[in-house]
Every structure is written in structure tokens, then in C-alpha cells.
Task: structure prediction
Amino acid sequence: MRKVVVTGLGFVTSIGNDKATVIDSLCHMKHGIEIFPPFKKDDIPVKLAAPIKGFNTESMDSEDWTYPIQYKLRLDTLRGLSPHGLYAYCAMVQAIQDAGLSEDEISNPKTGLFTASSGSVFMTYNHLNRMFKVGVLRASPQGIISSIVGTLNFNLVAAFKIKGASSGFASACSSSGHALGYAYDEISLGRHDRMFVVGGEDGNFLSIMPFAGMRVLTLSSDPDRASRPFDKNRNGFVGTGGAVVMILEEESIARKRNAEIYAEFTGWGQASDGYHVALSHPEGNGLIQSMERALGSVKLGPKSIDYINAHAPSTLAGDLSEMRALKKVFNKNNSKPAISSTKALTGHALSLASIMEASFSVLAIKENFMPGSAHIETLDPEAKGLNIIKKTLDKTPKHAMSNSSGFGGSNVSLIFSDPEH
Amino acid sequence: MELKKSLAFTPHLEDELRESLKRCSPETVEAALSFRQHGNFDGIPVIVMGIIERFLEPDVRHLLREGNDDTRLFEDLGVDSLLMVEIIILVEETLDISIANDELRDIRSVGDIKIYLDYKVKGIPIPKQNKQLTVEEIASVMPHQDPFLFIRESKISLNEAESLYSITGDEFFIDGHFKNNPVFPASILIEALGQLAVLYLIRNEKPEFEQPIDTSKVMFASCDGVRCHRVCRPGDVLKLKVKLKRIRYPLVTFEGTITVGDEKAVFAEDITLTFDYES
Result:
């Protein structure tokens, strides 16, 4: 099997729009959560979100948007984008620069692009409103391509002239984990030499607020304590958006071009709960299976894992089932990996969450730290026996696992390792 | 497309119009307001060109401003079919009109747009563009016949005609022009352009020609500013083109060019024919 390595990262997240800021936020546990102006209404009890700073994508007309000046977008690129399409474009530019890829390497039949996003409800809503107002023949011709699930691949493939595989993955909050896993397969099976993997979410009113109806958003108005996975008093997640890009390459090809290697992507596993449309299995059955499959794929025992970036979104049910699953897999053999949920800092990024947290795990290996699980005041008794780290540690994980769970009980576990392990 | 003066152009509609034209030039906005408030049709080209310009990448906008009729919408300006729809929607909104899809099928260049608008404003039906004629069709309508017909498959558009002719070397005059040195005569090159002008004259759909042309009354009148740039020989494929310059009954004047591959072969500033209508 061919080895897969990570050679480039790009970030537009609530805790930083470049790698250096993201590392700083993770090391110093700085969160990106604030009172979100669009929620400032008396009849909206949800007050917080973790918005993207330095961008303004409030208008449905993308030509009104503002974004950091280092990014230059042509009108024909900008026109078909959703807000998260813009974030993803910027993260692509960063990742390409980070990996030092040439145009030939980007636009190449052996270079593909997998994406994960839930589409843009914001664009759908506004375009449909316009269609009802002005008539079907005057609806914007960009309405579909900027809105539907797949909008990320359509736009990025065209903008970056991608010639290999292109596809999108939709499994709610494990979507970008699936995109990473299947991109890994493409390279390890020899079908591609290089894959861009992109996750994105708008993170605006329309992408976050529909979760209020499921009663899974926190009603806290204290940005410094609202998102607190594993805390006994956690009461829901804080929504966020943005985009993260990870570049995967076959190891020998990456080494030949002297690429800087962040980590090896050593393997992955997935499994479903077969239980409920939204709730995760109370004992975390699907997640147990997915973690065991991931460990099996890299032929490592649970003891080898030093750090786990948990899915734990700060919801009552979600955190609970994951804690139970973690205990089931790791407490035998007395293994005690450090565990944290970086959603305490970033908020929950839905389809983007898995790749964002996988990237944090990759940064942890490269930059020698384990990000802490912020905002825990009273640890949930269920966490007894788990090594949940409340502060960032100056320790290098040799093998890190990143978990994600989505609606329908879809679970993905990804393992990244020190390239010299 | 129905042009009509909007009866109730309220301040609210004016605000909406200004908002939807906010990225257009001030002239465009003024022309649009003048059209909507006073039914002033003169500004329509300014409005339409201003709307197109607003959607173009900044680095190609000058091409539209230069106004060259041959500038191609897709290849030169980057207007793809989706962008064309956006442009149309904004034109429709601005002029308070509807444009049917099939009216736009033949619009490929800046010149096509100007023609389209010109006809629309005058309320004349848009002539069919880009008519293709086979060798057989040409032979059946032309007064010229082999061995003295020097145009083959041709395309007639509203204001121009194009044709191809491959020099075979079997033309009856080649043996004597010149001895052991076959060169296609320059006079015959001009003759070929003249024949293409005749074909245009008898097959175009330009409404300015009020009645059918009597083919027996079409004659060569004059030719000016002829320059030959390249010797043409057997094996060369001549690409002939005549462009209508003016119609002043009973005279009609064209500009003619012949190219071989990418090389310019002949340029004729004026080729003028006399014509008359069927009586």
C-alpha cells in the first residue's frame, strides 16, 4: 500500500484565518465565540456563534463581499460562490502556497479534489425568494451552482482547473471525515498521487439557526463558557463555519519534490450506529466500531494512540455516547490517550468539523503540542477514567486520532502519525 | 421584446433601478432613467453596453469600450452562457421588457448586439443570421458558372459574407499564368471577391433592400485601394470575406479581404457594384 502524507494546510476558521493564528489559538486556548449580531432579537434565545472574522459575506450578491486583500478573485470565480465557497477558495490558496505546488501539479489528471459541505441554505433561501418575487425566468442563473450540495466542488474544480477525481461527501457532521478517508483510499490504492480535501460551511444565521428547533444549540450568552464539551453542565453547541483545506500526497512523490511533511495519514475507519436519525447510540456502538476499524487499518493497538481529538460537540447526548465509546476502546489495556474537544474553542462546524479537527491533530504532531479541552469547570462524572486534558500540553503525539459523528449515526475515525514513527 | 414606455415609474421603482444598476457607469444609470421616465430610446445602446461592461472582468472592459464589431462575446470578453443570462435579466429589468431565448441564439459578437438593438428599437424583425449555402445552392442562384465561378461553400450574415475557394491548379488560365510558374491571377482574386459580393447582394435579408434583386442587372462598377500582400498558388485555400460598407441605390459598396491560413493575401478598400430590383 502506498503511504499518504499531509503536505499542506489552509484555514479560514473562527480561531484564525491562517496557520500561525490557529496554532496560537490552540496553544493558548483562545476561542472564536462571540455574541452574534444577527441573533440580536428578542424572540431569538440563541445568542452566540463563532463567526469568521475579516470577511463580510452578508449580502446575497457576492460582488458586495469583502475579504482580506491578499486574495484576488476574478469576477467569474466570485460569481458562483457561496460564503463558504469564498472561505474555501482562500483556504485553497493558503494550502497550495503552504505545500509549494506548481500549476502543473495542481491541474493534473493524478490530482483530485474531494469536498464536504451541506451546501448553502443562505444562497438557496435568497435565490428562491428572488425567484418567487421576480418570476422563474429571472431567477439568477448562478442560483443552483452557488447553493446546492456540491457547490464547493463545482466552483473549486473550475477555479483551480482540477483534472482528477472530484466529488462531494454528505454525512452531516462526519462529511469531511469521509472526504478525507476516501481521498486517502484514492492515493493508497494508486488511483491518484495527490488530493485536495476541502470542508466548508457558511456559519451564518441560516446555516446555524435551524438547529435551534432541535434544541441542540446552547442558549448561553457567555462566550467564555458557552461551548464546554465534557463539562457536566454543557447545554448545547455553538455554531460556526469557515473552510479548511488539507493536501494529501503519496509519500515518495512528496519527498521527491522536497515537500515539508506535516504527518502521515496512517489509516481510517467508519461505521454506523443503525439506531436513530439524529441521536447517537447511547453506548456509542458505531463509534466504537469505527475507532476499532481505524486502529485495525493501521495495525496499532489502542495503547499507541497518544492524543484523541474528540467529536464532543458540547451536547448532552453527543458527548455522553462518545465518552462511553472511548472508555470501551481505550480503557482495556489501561491505555490513557490525552483527549480533548477543540469545539470548545471553535464551536461546531458541522460538515467542516471533521477536517478542521483532523488538521488540528496534524498541527499537534508537527508543532509538538496537544490542544486542551477548554472551559471545563465541572468534569462530567461519565468522564471518570478518561484522560481529558483541560490545558494545552507541550507533548508531541506520535499517533493522533480524530473522531467525528454525524446524523444517522455515521461515525468516522482518522489516524495521523509522526512521519518518522 | 416589447418596448413600451412605463406609465407609472414611481420613486420606489427608481430606487430599485438605481440599486440594480449600482455597479454600472453613471451614463448607463442616467440613460436608463431617461428611458424609463421619458421613453427616450436613444440611450438604449448606452444602457445595454453599460450593463454588459459591468459584468466583465476589469482587464477586458476596454475591449467593449473600443466597440470593435468583431469582438467576440465568449472568446474575447469571457461572456459564457450563464453570464449572458445574467446580462439579459438585468437588461430586462432595466428596460422593463422580456427577451425570448430564441432571439439571442445568433448573438456572438459586439456587432451582433448593436444590430440586434438597432432592429429592436426600430421595431423591425431581426433578420436571420449566418445563412450557410452549399456549392449547389450557390451555383443555382449565381449568374456566374463554372469554369468562371470562384466561390464555394459560403456563409451570409446580416452585414457580411464569407466563402472558401481552393486553388486546384486545374483552372483553365493557370497554364498561361505564368509559363512554368503557376500563379493565381490578382485580377481573378478581385473577381472572386466581386462574386461573393454578388452572392451577398442576392441572398441577404437586410431590410434596406426593399425588393428582390434582379441578378441579371448586377454589374461591377469600381474598385479602390487594392493591395496584394501574398502570391497565391495551387494548393492554397483562399478565405474570402466581403463586408457591407454602404447602400446608395443603385450602388452598393463592400470592403474585401482574402486570407490564406493566417496570412493576409488581398485587401480591397472599396468594391462597388451596381444593382437594380426586379421590375
